[in-house]
Amino acid sequence: MLEDKWLIWKFNRGSREAFSKIYQKYLDDLLTLAVNLLGDAHAAEDVVQDVFIRFGKSNGGFQLRGSLKSYLAVCVANRARDIYRSGKRHQTVDLNEAEHVASAAADPVRWAISNEQQQRISRALAKIPYEQHEVIILHLQGDMKFREIARTQQTSIKTLQSRYRYGLDKLRSLLNSEVCHATKR
Amino acid sequence: MQPKDNLEQQIINLQHQADAETQQRIFSRIRQALNEDQKQQTAHMQPHIWSTIMQNRIIKYAAAAVIIIGVLVTVSFLGGSPDGAQVAWAKVLEAFNNVQQVQVVSNKLMPDGSTVTHKFCLRRPDCIYEDKTNSTIIDNGQERLVLFKNKKEAAFLPSRIDRFPVSNHTVFKIIGLFQNETLEGMTITLLEDESNKTTIVYTMDYIRPIDQLTWQGKAWVDAETNLPIKISAALTSTPDSPQEHLSEEGAFSYDPIGNDIFELTVPEGYKIIK
Q1: pLDDT 10s digits, B25-65
Q2: Taking CA atoms, what residue in B is nearest to A28?
Q3: Which of B251, B255, B222, B229 shows the shortest CA–CA distance to B101?
Q4: In angstroms, what CA-CA distances link A165 with A142, B36, B106?
Q5: What's the rounded mean pLDDT across residues B136-142?
Q6: Cβ B161 vs Cβ B149: under 8 Å
Q7: Which CATH number fits the domain that encloses residue B109?
C-alpha cells in the first residue's frame, strides 16, 4: 500500500520508472481480470492497454483514494463491460478454442488454465449472466469487497451479494450438469 | 470473512501471466499512444503560446523555458521501458538493506515540562550504543557495558545481541515502516501538499495495542530512498502513566559511525560493580 502511494507520488512528478513499475506490478492481475471477464485474450490485451493509456494521461494530477489495484481493476471492469455490451468480443467464448487461437497467434497471453476442471469453470463462467459473472470475478480475482464494488457500480451491496450467490449456484449447476452429461456419454 | 469454498478457490486460481514479449508489446503500444497524445496537446497549444510569446519579451523566455521543461518531462516520462522499472521501489528496498548504521537523537518532552535526550547508535550486525537519561548501554556483540549515571556504577554483562539482534531494534523497525513493513496499530499516509522533490512527508497515526494510547506524528523521508530523516510525534490521548512523554522528535543520520563509540570503556569516577 505504501509502495503504491510512493509510486503514485513519483508518477505524478513524471517518473517513468514509477509508471513502468506500476505497469509491471499490476499487468498480470489486470490481464487475468480482463481475460476472465471477456474470455478473449486479444480483447483483454486491448482493455488493459486502454486502461494504462488513460492512467498514463492522468500523470500529474492523479489522486489515489483507496487501493491502486482496486482502482485499476474497476477501470478494467468498466472497459470490459463496454466491450461486452458493444459485442466487440471476438467470440462468445469457447476457451478451448480461445486457447488454441492464443497459442497459434504467438501466445499473446500465456494461458495458465492448467487443467480440464479450470477450463470447464471458464466455459461455465461465460454462460452465466454478465452481471453475475462480473461480480464473481471482481470479488474473487480483483480482491474487491462487495462494499467497494457497490460503490463503483452504484448498486446496493445486497443486490451484488445476490448476484454473486445466484452466479455461483448457476456455475455449480452448469458444472454438475456437464459432469452428468459426460458420465452418460 | 467467510472461508472460500472449493469452487471459489478454483475461480481464484484462474490466473493468466503475460510473458516478457507480451509485456513489452503492450507497453510499446501504451508508450506510442501517450507520445501521440502529448504531441497533439503540444500542437493544440502552439497558436496560443506563439501569440503570447510575440507580445512580451520576458514571457517569450519564460514560455520557451516552460516548453523545454515540458519536452524534457515528456521524454523522461515516456521514454522508458518496463526494464527501467527495476530501479524504482527496488532502489528503496536496497537503500534500506544497505543501511549498516544509523544514529538517532531523540528529544522527548516530559509531563513536567523538562526535555530529555536519548541517543541511539546502531551498527549492523552487532553493535549498539544507547544513551538515556539514567543509563548508557554499550553492546558490541561480545559483551555489554551498562553505566548507571546516578550512582556512577558500571556493570559488565553478557551481550544480548544474540537474543535481540540489531536489525530487530525499534529504530530499524521504524525505518522499515517506510519500506512496506507494518506495525500493528500504525497507519501511514502520504502528504502530497507538503512533499517536494527531495523530501516526502507522511503522517503517522499510532494506536498502541497494549493500552490503546494514541499518537499522531509526521515523518520527513528522503524521496529517493524513503529513509526517514526526521520524525516527530505527540500524544493525542491521556496516558495512565504519569511518566509517559508527551511528544518526541527524532533526527536520523546514516553517516558512518566510528569504532570508539562502541568501545567498552568505563568513564573516570565510575565504580565497577560486576
Answers
A1: 888 888 888 887 777 766 655 545 445 444 555 545 554 45
A2: B17
A3: B255
A4: 17, 45, 55
A5: 93
A6: no
A7: 2.50.20.10
Set of cell numbers at residue A127: 454462460
B55 inside domain: yes
Query: pTM of this prediction?
Result: 0.58
Question: What is this model's ipTM?
Answer: 0.79
In the block, residue with C-alpha cell 481464484: B12
Q: What is the pLDDT of residues A71-84, one digit of tens each?
A: 999 999 999 998 88
* Residue B203 CA from chain centroid, whole number: 12
What is the domain extent for residue B41? 20-80
Does one domain contain both B24 and B114? Answer: no
Q: How many CB atoms lie within 10 A of CB A19?
A: 28
Q: Name the pLDDT band for B185 (thresholds 50, 70, 90).
A: confident
Residue type, B21: E
Q: Are residues B101 and B194 in the same domain?
A: yes
Asked if omega into B209 is within 30° of 0 (cis), the reply is: no
CA distance B248 to B237: 15
Residues in A touching B189 (Cβ below 8 Å): 5
Nearest to B16 among A6, A24, A31 (CB): A31
How far apart CA B28 and CA B128 sit, in angstroms, is 50
Residue positions counted in chain A: 185
* Residue of chain A nearest B86, judged by CA positions: A21
Instruction: With beta carbons less than 8 A apart as the criterion, state whether B223 and B88 touch.
Output: no
